[in-house]
Amino acid sequence: MPSRHTTETARRRTFAIISHPDAGKTTVTEKLLLYGGAIQMAGTVKGRKSDRHATSDWMELEKQRGISVTSSVMQFPYKDCIVNLLDTPGHQDFSEDTYRTLTAVDSALMVIDVAKGVEERTIKLMEVCRLRDTPIMTFINKLDREGRDPIDLMDEVENVLKIPCAPITWPIGMGKRFKGVYHLKRDAVHLFSPTHGGKRNAGEVIQGLDNPRLDEVLGGQADELREELELVMGASNEFDLEAYLEGRLTPVFFGSAINNFGLQELLDDFVEYAPPPRSRATESREVMPEEEKFSGFVFKIQANMDPQHRDRIAFMRICSGSFKKGSKLHHVRIGKDVRIADALTFLASDREHAEEAFPGDIIGIHNHGTIRIGDTFTEGEKLAFTGIPNFAPELFRRAQLRDPLKMKQLQKGLQQLCEEGATQLFKPLNNNDLILGAVGVLQFDVVAHRLKNEYNVDAGFENVNVQTARWVSSGDERKLEQFRDKASNNLAIDHGGDLVYIAPTRVNLQMAQEKWPEIEFSATREHG
Ligand code: GDP
Fold first, then answer.
1. From CA 66, how far away is CA 526, in angstroms rounded?
2. Atom 2, ligand 1: which residue's CA is nearest?
3. How far is the CA of 24 from the centre of ligand 1 (A)?
4. Residue where a domain terminates, one of 344, 378, 412
5. Which residue in 470, 392, 478, 479 sits closest to 438, CA to CA?
6. On the CB side of 306, how many CA atoms lie within 13 Å of its CA?
7. Which of 257, 273, 289 is the last residue of a domain?
8. Mutate to test the pocket of ligand 1, among 27, 28, 72, 139 (most ligand atoms within 8 A of CB)
């Protein structure tokens, strides 16, 4: 008999949705939760989001801007599995958070708008998935509208995203002529019947492509379908489980999320084929999910999810062992044991107190300023999970305090907000500036807003003569010391205590790199 730990691990499916804004991620999420029985009525996902927005000041800002910086975790049961869906923020300004969320999943679902095809953000996210060979399923959405020819779309995915496609379902017409999908492996036609709101789609299923019932309901479209499928099956790849699991092939499904159509077929195959928790690399060894001892890493820190508690939650992905309420965990970076009395799990849309969680699950732990993104927790072993990147910011501004007596609060606020990982703080070696770096310009507004609301500090951000930043290190301690001395006007310490070269121009950076070949200039910093 396999142990409970083994069976619980094997039934976890942890994934995220990658898509360009507007392709239908929110709608797909909502419908998947509906199939998981997590919510009664679809529509709750957006409703829940806006409830939260209304209760928190800085989320109010997001609402005004029509964007979401709030990433959350949803857990729901489906068949024998426990599915963890990690939501990724949609706006491109917040891509760093998205990237890091993708380090915490075992697979991804790519949603593509049938009319728009492969869009810019999907391309970027796909690049991130490729770094870890993340298996990807594809859902082509909005078939109830006129769109591009499905064969062209698959060509585009193959050419632009460089991943072969294996159609699992095939659409029968589209737009006004959309009649359903044919499941290639099960040889069954699922007829489309528009279903809105919280009802599951219960359209007729016709077994067999040769079934005369098909001609009865589809008329001329039945023969069209047969001809098209002959072409498709001859020209496209067959589904190959191993290739999918290695990230070398993507199974493709078609449907219309808003009509609850095509997603159940997807979910059925998802729980069957998508990988359970995979092993993870650390600096010293590979950690297997079956290991009995606990390990996990923090991939996200978020503030004020609950307006009643002005605290921050660290999101931890469990990699091995299991977590029980009240367990003691070893916080590797600071070398301390901490008792986690009040961890949160994310069943459906509510946060609940975690009784027990397994590899693949995400738990939320309260952070009082000691936890950083990338931190590893174990039962004592000194492990450090790798591959959780921090990207060099592209925009820099100097914090400008309006009330000089609030300097302490400003420093504390910036330090804490930067621990969440969306922005980075740089303190130059040679002056008292506080320079904030971000990947997107909206971040400065968010930080100013939160400083005011959460720390009671009135601050603005002004231009500063910094164009780019690189983390610096060297195997040669003496050279590094020399460099620190000679280049100190361009050096700063970041909020994690690491040394950073802040360059006024790219040319300046290039010259520094040429002058100091023994120094490594890195555009990403791994946490830890
Ligand atoms: P997100 O930005 O990727 O989260 O996309 P949303 O789920 O918010 O969807 C964007 C828009 O597309 C919304 O207006 C949805 O109602 C609409 N939409 C989503 N799925 C479908 C679909 O299957 N058919 C049609 N016609 N519209 C859809």
1. 31
2. 22
3. 4
4. 378
5. 392
6. 11
7. 273
8. 27
Question: Which domain does 358 fall in, by range?
Answer: 280-378
Residues 238, 169 share a domain = yes
- With a Cβ cut-off of 6 Å, ligand 1 is lined by 19, 21-27, 90, 141-142, 144-145, 256-259
Per-residue pLDDT tens digits for 295-342: 999 998 876 555 555 567 889 999 999 998 888 999 998 899 999 887
**Locate tokens 């199974």: which residue?**
251
Q: What is the CATH number of the domain that holds 447?
A: 3.30.70.3280
Q: Are residues 367 and 407 in the same domain?
A: no
Instruction: Assess if residue 9 is contained within a domain.
Output: no
Task: Say if 339 falls within a structural domain.
Answer: yes
What total number of domains does the chain contain?
A: 3
Please enumerate, by residue number, every residue annotated as part of a binding site. 19-26, 87-91, 141-144
Give which of 314, 320, 271, 267 is closest to 295, Cα–Cα: 320
Q: Partners of 525 in the beta sheet?
A: 390
Looking at the fold, whether 326 and 396 belong to one and the same domain comes out as no
Dist CA 174 CA 224 (whole Å): 13
Distance CA(48)–CA(312), nearest Å, equals 20
Please tell me whether residues 180 and 297 are part of one structural domain: no
Ligand 1 centroid from CA 69, angstroms: 19
- Interface ipTM: 0.99
Residue 74 covered by a domain = no
Q: Which residues contact 242 (CB under 8 A, 6 or more apart)?
A: none
Q: Could you report the per-residue pLDDT of 186-232, keeping only the tens digit for each?
A: 999 999 987 655 556 568 899 999 999 999 999 999 999 999 999 99
Closest approach atom of ligand 1 to CA 27: 7
CA of 256 to the centre of ligand 1 (A): 9
Please indicate, yes or no, if residue 470 is contained in any of the structural domains: yes
Task: Give the tokens for residue 346.
Answer: 């994310």
DSSP bridge pairs for 315: 300, 364
Which residues carry a binding-site annotation for GTP? 19-26, 87-91, 141-144
Quote the pTM value: 0.81
Q: Same domain for 257 and 284?
A: no
188-196, long-range: CB < 8 A, 24+ apart: 189/214, 190/262, 190/265, 191/217, 192/144, 192/256, 192/259, 192/261, 193/261, 194/144, 194/256, 194/259, 194/261, 195/259, 195/260, 195/261, 196/258, 196/259, 196/260
Are 197 and 345 members of one domain? no
Residue 237, classed as helix, strand or coil, is coil
Rounded Cα gap, residues 401 and 298, in angstroms: 32
Domain containing residue 137: CATH number: 3.40.50.300
Distance CA 479, CA 510 (A): 18
